[in-house]
Every structure is written in structure tokens, then in C-alpha cells.
Amino acid sequence: MSNIEWDEKTFSRFAYLGDPRVRVSSVAYVLTKANLQDNKYESTVVVEDLETGARRFIENASMPRISPDGKKLAFTRPNGEKKATEIWVADVQTLSAKRVLTIKNVRSVEWNDDSRRLLVVGFKRRDDEDFVFDDDVPVWFDSMGFFDGEKTTFWILDTESEEVIERFEKPRFSSGMWHGDSILVNVPHREGSKPALFKFYDIYLWKDGEEEKLFEKVPFEAVDSDGKAILLRGKKEKRFISEHEWLYIYDGELRPVYEGPLDVYDAKLDGGKVYFLTPDAGRVNLWLWDGKAERIVAGDHWVYGFDVHDGRAVLLIAIATRVPELYLYDGELKQITDYNGPIFDRLKTFEPRHFRFRSKDLEIDGWYLRPELKEDEKAPVIVFVHGGPKGMYGHRFVYEMQLMASRGYYIVFVNPRGSNGYDEDFALRVLERTGLEDFEDIMAGIEEFFRLEPQADRDRVGITGISYGGFMTNWALTQSDLFKAGISENGISYWLTSYAFSDIGLWYDLEVIGPNPLKNENYRKLSPLFHAENVKAPILLIHSLEDYRCPLDQSLMFYNVLKDMGKEAYIAVFKKGPHGHSIRGSPKHRAKRYKLFIEFFERKLRKYEEGFDIEKILKEG
């Protein structure tokens, strides 16, 4: 059997599954492949019969939605010529389809219980070809671009007559869903001159042009409805955006479903029961509430998405050595798809080794990948830092980790305080202290790793991360001489400009770094930029021009200051792609990024080369 090697293009061999849906005996999901030659992603909707296993395919399609009676399938398809989105409806048995609506911007599609009407939620903007204008904040948002006076738009579409029978608008960031024949609408609550984004909502019930306000300024939002009860995710009281989300049911009375200790990612109602996902110490598990809450699908894995109908759940599950595949849970867990099995059978993968360590007043989870080594051979080390800070590492597939472990590097990653997957107090410990004790946690984890693995080379340690991980990479190089190279991606270097420039800075930075940014010393003290003179290791800064979460100024300022001080610094700016460009950039974009990633650590931790000749590197690729 011939093996497949890990390189910057291996990711394009995988099939990526998303957006699973189940109704009656049918499952639908999106199958995406990266086409490197044409530099595009090709998405196919797959419809699978759970009884027979038969599969049918709709090319160039996404957002599959099976009607409640199981007879119809709605899906979307891009119209490149009109720069719009088409909504189609197909017969589930024959897949004979018709186009029912063409609109410019679609965010969600949902069937009514009558299996005839669709609720389509999208948005409209001014769309002047020369300029944008706004009188609200934020003026832009990652992956969404400039708002330009955006309003959320709701269409009720009759799929038989192919006519929009009702239409209304709400402020940006609103969302909605069916509640019987009414529509539940979540609208960000406003406090003075700005919306209380991510924290407080006003919840309305809309029908036939009239609306009723169910809740005002509540720290939760409606996430599902069965026409009788409403499922709400959030808290009864909330001080911080970073607090955990919990679950409640409202049917005239507000009743708790789950109130910790863990966070809740996603939740759905089914037959009076509630299914939901929680991050749990490096895992993501499925829970069921039926009067009491308990884990029903638990293990060393991540559930990336799920849907449920009539007691049967479909789940996308990944493990540390495999990208997600589709599973069915109906009392037992069964794997439905194995698109990537033949590929991974020919790839050497590396299982994470778990360890626990003490850092100050806490017990912390850590993991590492051990490369194939000869006896007494020393190997370089790369420390990965997750995003967030309320992100999480653990039992999930991370391409760069497997890629670099295959090239002979130890890979180390931990969940420092501030991470998700633990109790709320653990997550909140970084507020107004980002870069302090959490950095100490990472350093303590590295020391414990060295104790466990004497073949790890302390003199060849690199560090990398994206977003908060990029901030921590910048910070680490200013605070410690342990690291001999760093790759910082889309990270923060100056918290004051992040507060004023980021799409979420007016909310998030005030919480993570502190209030009163113009006078608060934290905005300087906790910014790597003001400690740049301490940097001794070479650094590669990678950033995306269309990142509005951690905008380009963050890497560009750090790069300019480091160069002005005579430090070894390099910057690669990708012209397209949002904050998550590492997985959402175009195929060629991603391949080039992986190439940069490989070569920088190879040249700085293995070959000890001076400089970083990008033309030579790309030519070699």
C-alpha cells in the first residue's frame, strides 16, 4: 500500500462535511471539497436514506433543509452572474427541483410546520458603489464586511405559488425562527448610543404585521421552538459576555433546563426533550434533558454540529486523528459516513498524550504529540496556543499539528485559565489579566512536558497561535527567552487600537482588558507592542487584510516597531479572507499559508538559517 505524505496540500484530499439535517428517514448534509487547481470549494448537498443507505447528490448547493413531513428539500445555490443566492425546493424522492426565490443576501432558511412556507432571513444594505455610510456601531463585522446601514430582513415565502407573502425588517444582528405560525425575533437590546451586542436581547413574537414583546433586555435569546415551548440559551442574569451560556424553556413560565457547570454550544428541542452540546475538558459531548440532564454521547471527540428529529440525532464527530464524519444516535452511536477513511489509512497520524499539571492555584489539562524518534534523538518543539481566550484544545483534529508532528516536531498544547470546557470561574479568571496568569499556565505546562519527554530539545522551542493565540505568541516572545521562533497569526499587539478598531472591541476588549480604555493602564501594560525591545527570537506575522476581528494594524504595528529596533521580523499579508482565513481562505491561500508555516519553523528550529527568502521558498513549492 502506497502512503500519502503530509504537506501543504494534503488538506485538499479530505472531504469536509457540514450542516447535518434529519427529518423522518432522510438525512441531508453538505459535502465540500477543496479544488486547488481551480482555487475554489465545491459543495454538494447529499441526501441519504437512513433505512436503505441510498445516497443522492445535488451539485453546487448548500444549506439543506428537509421539510417536517420529510417530502421536500430546500437548498441554496449561488448565482454568480447576479451576485445573489437562489433558493430551490426539491422532491426528496426524485430530487426534481424548482427555483422559488432569488435574493441577494441569505443567512438562514427554515420550514414552517405546514411543509409549505419558508422563513428566509437575510439582510439589505445601501450598496452605493462609491462609499459606505453608517450611524451605528460597529461599522463592520468579520466575514460580513461593512454594514452600510444594514437591516435584517425577514421573508415568508410560499413555495407553491413561489411568492413572498410577507416581509418585514429589524435592526442588524437580529435573528428569527418559526413559533407555530408566528415568528420569534431576537433583537439586540440597545443601551444608549450602542446595542448591547452578545449580552442582552429583546424578544418579539411577530404575526400578520403585528408584534408582541415577550422579553425586554434579557441575557438570553431564543434558539429553537416546537410551536408550544421556546428554548432559550443564555443566563437569567449576566455581568460578562464571557460567562457560560445555559438553557431555559419558556411556555408562559421560565424554567431551567441546564444551569452549568459547563457552557452550552448548541441546543435543539425535540418532542419536549432538549438535546445540547457542551465543551468538556477538551471534548465536546451531546447531552439530553428529559426532566434531568445527562450526557448521552460522550468520549474523546468533538461534536461539531448536530440535528435531531423524533428521537434520532445526526452528529458530525471528529477525533484528534480524523476530520468529522457523520454519525447517527438512536440509543446507540453508529457511523454513517467514511469519506476520509481510505485517505487516513495511508497517512501517519499522531494521537495526543494527555497530562495534568499544577499551575499556581489550578489543575490544568495539557496534551502533546510525540513524533517518531530514534533512541536518544532530540526533537524540536512547537507550542500551540488556542484562540479565545475562551477557546479550547483537546481531542480534535488540527491540521497544522499533525503536519508538523509528521515532520519530527513535538507538539504541545494546553488549556490555560480562561479556556472553555471547565466551570465559569475558570473561564473568567483572565478578565483584566490577559497575558498574566494564563501565560504562566502555558509556561508551567511546557515545563511539565519537558519532565515527561526528555528527548524534547529545550534549545529548539517555537510557539504559534491564531487570534488570542497570536496575541499570546507576541506576548511570549516579549516575556521569555525560551522560544527561539514564533509564528503569530491575526493576533493582538496593542489593546487600545483593538478596542477602537475591532468589530467587537467596544464590547469584548472592555471586558477582557478593562473599562475606560483611554485611561486604563492595562491597555498599555498588557500590549506586546510596549515590550517589543525584549524580543530576541525571529517572528513571522501572518495576517489577513479582511480580518475585522483582529484587524491588520495589530500585526503591522508590531512588525514596524520590531524592524525599527533591528529585530528579525517578517510579515505575510493575505489579501483576502476573514479572521478565520486559516480554514476559510481559498484553497491556494491555505496551501501557501501552510507552506510558510512549515518553512519558517524548518529554517529557524532545524536549519538555523538567517533570513527568510520567500521567493525561494515559494519557488521550491
TrEMBL record:
InterPro entries membership: 6-blade_b-propeller_TolB-like, AB_hydrolase_fold, Peptidase_S9_cat
Sequence ranges assigned to domain Peptidase S9 prolyl oligopeptidase catalytic in this UniProt record: 397-606
Transmembrane segments: none
GO molecular function: serine-type endopeptidase activity
Protein name, entry field: S9 family peptidase
Record keywords: Hydrolase
GO biological process terms, semicolon-separated: proteolysis
Source organism superkingdom: Archaea
Pfam families: Peptidase_S9
